[in-house]
Fold this protein.
Amino acid sequence: MTVAVVGGGPAGMAAAISAKKAGALKVVLIERAERLGGVLPQCIHSGFGLSYFGQDLTGPEFAELLGREVEAIGVEVWLQSMVTEAYPDRSLLISRAEGISLLKPDAVIFAVGARERPRGAIAIPGSRPAGIYTAGTAQYMTNIQGYEVGKRIFILGSGDIGLIMARRFTLEGAKVEAVAELMPFPGGLSRNVQQCLKDFGIPLLLSHSVIEVMGRERVEAVKVAKIENGMPVAGTEKVYEVDTLVLSVGLLPEVELLRQMGLTILPYTNSVTVNQFFETEIPHVYVVGNGAGIWDLVDHVVVSASTAGAASVANWGVERSEAFVEPCRDVRLVIPQRILLGADEPPVLWFRAGKPLSVSKVTLLRGTEVLASRGYLSLRPAEMATFPLRKEHYEKLKPGDRLTLCVSEVGSDA
Amino acid sequence: MEESRGKSSELVSLGSWDVVVIGAGIVGAAVFRELTRYHLRVLLVDALNDVGGEASRATSAIIHAGFDPEPGTLMSQANVDGVQLWFRWSQELSIDLEWNGSLVVAFNDEEVNEITRLLHQGKNVGVPVKFLGREEVLRREPMLNPEIRAALYAPVSGIIDPFQAVVALVGNGLKNGGHVFLNARVKGLERRKDGVLVHTEKGSIQSKVVVNCAGVGAHKIMEMAGETWFTIHPRRGQYFVLDKQVGHLVRHVVFPAPTSLGKGTLVTRTTHGNLLIGPTAEDLAEPDSSTTAEGLRAVLEGAKRLVPFPFERYAITQYAGLRAMGSTGDFLVAHSKAMEGLVNVAGIKSPGFAAAPALARLAVKLVGDIVRLEERSDFDTRFEFPPRMTEIPFADREGLIFEDPKYGHIVCRCEMVSEGEIVSALRMNPPAMDLDGIKRRIRATSGRCQGGFCMPRIIDILVRELGISPNRITKFGGRSFVVYGDNRGDDQ
Ligand SMILES: Cc1cc2nc3c(=O)[nH]c(=O)nc-3n(C[C@H](O)[C@H](O)[C@H](O)COP(=O)(O)OP(=O)(O)OC[C@H]3O[C@@H](n4cnc5c(N)ncnc54)[C@H](O)[C@@H]3O)c2cc1C
Ligand SMILES: Cc1cc2nc3c(=O)[nH]c(=O)nc-3n(C[C@H](O)[C@H](O)[C@H](O)COP(=O)(O)OP(=O)(O)OC[C@H]3O[C@@H](n4cnc5c(N)ncnc54)[C@H](O)[C@@H]3O)c2cc1C
């Protein structure tokens, strides 16, 4: 059988390796860029691989290790090859320098990653000069292309990429005036807030946002204000004279190909529903990594993608009976949303809290009936947490069950 | 002095011309193209780095049916005639124009009266219009606010690709021997014995006739000629562009009933397949095409009254454009009252796009009062854009890739633009010179990620193709530099 993996980032590489390991005769890894690795080659900081490889690696090193495995195990890699269309029967149309190819594999794994929300998605008013970049784009320009993106920089959004770039710009000799965050808590991992902002004395303005961009040709300044109930608070406006505005205001899974296949998009993951093997509602079509919902660490991406790779080979002909899971209250998202019943191993539910929580109890409910619950010392929106289902709980699930995953704070961890 | 025929260049001869057209918006572009039908030396001058960089790119781009302007005005006549001409021009010049029809909807008695008035007005000027009851309107447009009462339907109205339109007209003029001079803001006019001396930032140009198509700056050109009776103020319109996912929310162009401030906030699809909502109507003292929080809120409110829908969730970008509001309320196409040899085409607010072909014909007539118009036998009416991969048959795509593998390399993933197409935009005439020029010609960077993915890669292509260093690449000319330099360079 042939498995096609679309996207050669960490998710795609991991899925391809595990599909091959699980016995797929032919695995084709299709990547539109000139190299494998996805966003990793541009993430030249360390902090990758702590749990998966057990060592602290940079992005390029992590990509390199996976890439070697891809090669060693005999995955067929197509570079500069973009899947432009996908059909419900799993056929893929691929544009390459060699021409246009049509591939119809026995299973497809989409590992297409995410794109960044641009300025227009959050409708920042003002002029439209040069000098406004999303953080990942600025990172690519800085680290891959070697361009000096700006000299005086304001960063909106405290997602990890924004934090990492605050430090990167500073090391490159630019002045980062401040980072503003709309929410009352940082969007990125705590370690990044410390190592990228605090250690460099860069101010973090919580509950603040950019309310106007100024400048005719290149950005000349941004106006920033405190935000309450979605509106700027009068009298709190401050103008920062900068030549660059960098936005780190969220990632959205790339779902165009999935949409083309006729799958529907969930509002809270901004992707399609998957089961614990990351299979979509179309049999033998999988979606993994940031394409399935935004993950925090590449290690988690790789672990989850490996599940799909193995399943794409082993799961042949499984009869589908499923239960369904939805997030509730302060759980912002849960992956998977469908639980295939009768698998050998009980599933792991991945979830994210909607706000920072101290000691908390997470429960899996069927209506009002508590099926399972676990305690957590703390939960942060920036981090993906796991809720492993025990075998006895898994076996209690019945086809068609509608479950919710809820969290309640128990007390403070002072 | 450069004499090669049909060049868009920085290096045109500053020498002597028959006609200089000031302003490369849709009006100036149309005038330019129409003038190249004749044995004339024609030069199109603009202040910016590219053609079509002002109002003509920040418009609703509706070819209005023509029932709206007051009968008897130039605006009414030019609109009605313009629609007819666009039928032919869009085909000759391969400009995307879809005749999807428009609906002006009414919510109450007053508005029903208003659309009834427009119905009669439309019939008077010979524009096909029809009154539709609530059921029929909702059948055609199920997403509309169910509280509507009725609508005025105008089948012969459409949406146009405004960027293509300007580029195609200029390109056709270039093909027919006209010249283009960019980055040359006009600073002054001087009457000379045998014509007008046009002073630009880049030197002075002598011409027998000057046609002023300077949009929101046309009164400034008039002032340079000593003509102050006509003034222009900007009326800003702000917009949201929404993801293609919701492009098919409506089929027609949907307007509210008009008010004294204009045609109101509309909801339409664009020829690119996006949804467009806007504009506002804000009178300004000085030109300022920034968007504002209040303006954008007003756009959402206005659009939601027509179609209750969470538009903001699908936003990909916002922009604002300036309408040139002339002091007479009508379009002005006339010989200057102060300077012989100057023809003014001024106060071209909406429906200026729809009217542009007709305005151009009128302006050419006036030019003919001054210089002899002798038709060329070899005038080529046609213009074609370089091939778009997404718009050609499969076999042709394969053929292009076979000839040039760059066509197989997709650079802009949102709009599916290949490297080959980007290179073609840089090599066509008039060529793209900056990121916005590429965007307007082939849409790369205009999709849902707004260039997040392809912009850095396009910088590399520009560096390679134009042979300039990265810190010279601009978004739209001038000092709109994209990066400051190369941090691997030796400047440390
Ligand atoms: C700035 C930044 C800092 C980060 N820091 C850390 C960190 O310190 N530690 C950590 O663990 N994680 C970190 N991460 C997260 C980690 O990089 C991501 O979780 C991971 O890269 C996601 O992997 P992916 O394979 O899903 O997506 P991607 O890496 O985005 O890969 C997707 C791939 O698919 C390709 N593709 C997409 N569409 C197509 C198509 N149609 N045809 C062909 N190919 C296609 C793309 O070109 C790309 O190569 C960071 C991420 C960023 C952006
Ligand atoms: C918000 C909005 C919505 C609209 N909606 C519609 C619609 O739906 N349908 C419709 O038919 N019309 C519409 N219009 C009107 C239409 O867009 C305009 O009438 C038309 O684009 C005007 O074209 P123009 O060539 O006169 O001006 P512009 O496109 O503004 O071109 C003028 C050019 O002159 C140049 N210039 C100015 N001063 C100088 C100088 N001193 N030296 C050299 N060059 C100079 C500028 O750089 C510019 O390129 C709308 C307009 C706006 C602003």
